[in-house]
Amino acid sequence: xxxxxxxxxxxxxxxxxxxxxxxxxxxxxxxxxxxxxxxxxxxxxxxxxxxxxxxxxxxxxxxxxxxxxxxxxxxxxxxxxxxxxxxxxxxxxxxxxxxxxxxxxxxxxxxxxxxxxxxxxxxxxxxxxxxxxxxxxxxxxxxxxxxxxxxxxxxxxxxxxxxxxxxxxxxxxxxxxxxxxxxxxxxxxxxxxxxxxxxxxxxxxxxxxxxxxxxxxxxxxxxxxxxxxxxxxxxxxxxxxxxxxxxxxxxxxxxxxxxxxxxxxxxxxxxxxxxxxxxxxxxxxxxxxxxxxxxxx
Amino acid sequence: xxxxxxxxxxxxxxxxxxxxxxxxxxxxxxxxxxxxxxxxxxxxxxxxxxxxxxxxxxxxxxxxxxxxxxxxxxxxxxxxxxxxxxxxxxxxxxxxxxxxxxxxxxxxxxxxxxxxxxxxxxxxxxxxxxxxxxxxxxxxxxxxxxxxxxxxxxxxxxxxxxxxxxxxxxxxxxxxxxxxxxxxxxxxxxxxxxxxxxxxxxxxxxxxxxxxxxxxxxxxxxxx
Lengths: 297, 224
What we know:
- The complex is a heterodimer of chains A (297) and B (224).
- Chain A has helices at 42-49, 71-77, 93-103, 109-118, 137-149, 167-183, 221-227, 238-241, 264-268, 279-296; strands at 3-13, 18-27, 31-36, 57-62, 66-67, 78-81, 155-159, 189-194, 206-211, 214-220, 228-234, 245-250, 254-260, 273-275.
- Chain A is an alpha/beta fold and 297 residues long.
- In chain A, helix 4 packs antiparallel against helix 5 (137-149).
- The longest helix of chain B is centred in the middle third of the chain and has 31 residues, at 96-126.
- Classes of the chains: A alpha/beta (297), B mainly alpha (224).
- The A-B interface holds A 47, 50-54, 70-73, 75-76, 78, 80, 82, 85-91, 95, 98-99, 102-105 and B 2-5, 7, 11, 14-15, 18-19, 83-88, 90-95, 223-224.
């Protein structure tokens, strides 16, 4: 399988936070989600991938041949969008289109108009134009997404694209991801970050879990769902089940947790219910374990 | 062979300001002039139409102040990593080269605006239409003070925090205003050669400050 992005030992140090060393392989032709709580380092990693922030150590290889020294080639190939204040606030759709046309070789104005129409933002060539500062957070995010999706890129890197979108817009975004990936026969890749995977579960093929600036788990979603199991049972057996659980929650009557699939037989013998977790449940379980490990330290 | 993704300077300005270089030039020229015209009209009306109520030297001071803040605001837009749009600007075609072109162009436009003010004042004086300054040499005083100010604006790019930069600029601005007033008083006692050399030296100051600030900006802010 081809790799869109190979990240080796990427490190970035701030005063009170250190990212890394991060080792990730992003498969080409798939949609990868960076999942983690607020402050896990997702935005920092995305900014390093796109050249917005410099890393202190480590290497990256893009599409099997470019490195972070090849920024002039990579700028047109990577479509990057941050979650907030991506464009100056006094710009309107018309200005966004004009500047994007100058700033990138592969911006398609016609496609931008179509996307603005799909996102119900209005006509970029219209006379009355609302400035970004007057738009809602959701419409601003739609503008950013329309601008980046109107470019012919090979790698789409989006920071929390769904955070301010309503459910219909999120659904539309998922469809757009699928269309984007399908257009170039597996040569395009999407990376997005989220702290709420429930909204983007159906468009996520590959997941990378982050906590405290480190990658704690990664893999194709289908493989992860076979590696882990969701366990629930009566509160009376929770004490016996806990040693096998990576993380769990419980109340007076029942408990629920994530465990490794290899422990399924032992857990089944305790009269617990076992099922395949959703990505959302897996995220909660894995991130909760990371939180517990951090508190123990 | 690396791909050349450099933008021409007028496109670099378009990317950073969202508008054309011509519009920016017109705006930077006209806004301070509008402030001066408003001031002159107000004084004229308040004095009941008496021409002698208008203090000619005050025109230079108003122009100095208004253009000073105009240049600063335009410079902040291209040099602030904590303003919206920063992440977008870091990923556009040309990268740092685009930033450098936009920064140098806006400095050059500031210098051209001051040159235009001086030329217009000189032409109006020569044509005996109106004398905007007390003496012809007052143009030099304005020119040198504005050049020092532009060099200061460029150096202040080394301060990343926009609020701190504005406070530092406001403090320096009054010192440069004192320089302007001092130069106005020494105009008559200095030869034309001294004025010309001083004017040339002030332009060199801008070139040096621009080179230093862009190198520092790349190392400490852009690549961080």
